[in-house]
Amino acid sequence: MRLFLTGLLITACGYAAAAISPGKGYTGSDADAKAKYDGNGELAFVVYDSVAKVSYTKDLGLDLNSFFASAQQEYFTQLFFPVADPQWVDFLLKVDVSRLKWALFGVDVLGTNKPGDRRLFTTATQGTEGSIATMTNQSFSAMMAANVGPSGFLDLVNTTGTHGVSGTTLDYAGNGSSVNSAEVDAKSYFGSDSLVFNENGLGRMPFTVGNDVGKSSWFYYLTRSNLTNNLANVLVDEFDNVGNDGYWGFTKVADNANSPYKGQYLLSYTLEASTPKAATVLGQARINLTDFSAGFMARAYLPESTEFAGYRPSSLVMPSVTVSAVPEPASWGLMALGLLALGGRAARVRRAKRVTS
User: Fold this and answer.
1) 11 CB-side CA count, 13 A
2) Residues 236-295: tens digit of each pLDDT
3) Which tens digits make up the pLDDT trace of 164-176?
4) What dihedral do alpha carbons 166, 170, 173, 179 form, nearest 10°?
């Protein structure tokens, strides 16, 4: 089975009530919306120039719960998000494109210190992945606190710039974008010297989240590993399937590329298919239950200059990529997380082999 998604070609208009969910704070009267978004954040895409002190934030319309499941299936998955809305055009006029960095993250701030309650989904700067698992529970909680309440980064973005209007009911189902500058509102600007939240969580993260345009990033899920032990390391899960790692990329497609997106800035998520085969119905059922808890192998994707070149218009499948591994940290602080049985990658591969026999 093969899944190819291009339906998320979102053109954000930045209309008044559109908002990015931090997993808490829905104030509308729609009970279904409250049930969906409280305890379920959304993914936010940011691009920033830390010299010009201007950032662009886009609501991708992807909630954490749904993406956690759909983005780790065993079949081929690819999402494309062309970035070309009026806010982006305005942003490019204010920055130096040679200095741009990008990141993607989502937070769910609702809950307690119980593992799995509060969550961070995030990209990582190439080369810093190996330090993700050294983050402590205490630092994680402090970082998440920067996204809670009216002073939280996402809440500030939701009511500033061109994204939303202060005092209106937030509409998490609506997707918009925003341009924010430190000169106008330093708290809603995302950059190396941001006041509320930035590429290293204001020093709370032992890793950074931003990459240059044209570079890709693996994607990670972080949560506390212990209810009370603040000095223990966080729990980390890498987005993947049995055979491959999922990665985000952001680039400007060449003007002469064989692509419907030529000349445009393009954000994409890719997870190549794994090909486990089962001899029995039970075996196939087991394969179909995605192993969300990827054992933890920190990797850095080192793209060639042709990483985003060569799209085939008929299918838009990316060309083959080369992956270079970074040494795995000695300890990843693994522990059970409800139904998420955390196992090493080797164990998952052995399991896949067993169901194919």
Assistant:
1) 5
2) 988 888 777 888 989 888 887 777 788 889 998 988 887 666 666 666 555 555 444 434
3) 666 677 778 888 8
4) 20
Q: Which among 248, 255, 257, 253 has a CA at the least distance from the CA of 266?
A: 253
Q: Rounded CA gap, 186 and 195, in Å?
A: 7
Q: CA 307 to CA 28: how far, in whole Å?
A: 43
Using alpha carbons only, give the angle 78, 84, 88 rounded to the nearest 5 degrees: 120
User: The tokens 């209007």 sit on which residue?
Assistant: 165
Q: How far is CA 308 from CA 46, 126, 249, 312, in A?
A: 19, 17, 8, 11
- Local structure of residue 63 (DSSP, 8 states): E
Measured in Å, how far apart are the chain's first and last C-alpha atoms?
20
SS3 239: coil
Please, are residues 179 and 90 in contact by the beta-carbon 8 Å criterion?
A: yes
Angstrom distances, CA of residue 201 to CA of 122, 198, 206, 293: 11, 5, 9, 24
Q: What is the pLDDT of residues 88-109, one digit of tens each?
A: 999 999 999 999 999 999 999 8
Number of Cβ within 10 Å of residue 57's Cβ equals: 29
Q: What sign for the dihedral angle of Cα 143, 148, 150, 156?
A: positive
Joined tokens for residue 29: 């009267």
**DSSP code of residue 299:** E
Beta strands in the chain (DSSP E): 42-49, 54-63, 77-83, 101-108, 119-123, 177-181, 211-212, 216-223, 235-238, 247-252, 265-271, 299-300, 324-325
Residue type, 211: N
Model pLDDT, residue 63: 93
pTM of the model: 0.76
- Give me the phi and psi of 288, to 5 degrees please: -65, -20
Residue 221 Cα distances to 38, 74, 107, 145, angstroms:
18, 18, 10, 17
Strand partners, 239: none
Distance CA 189, CA 198 (A): 9
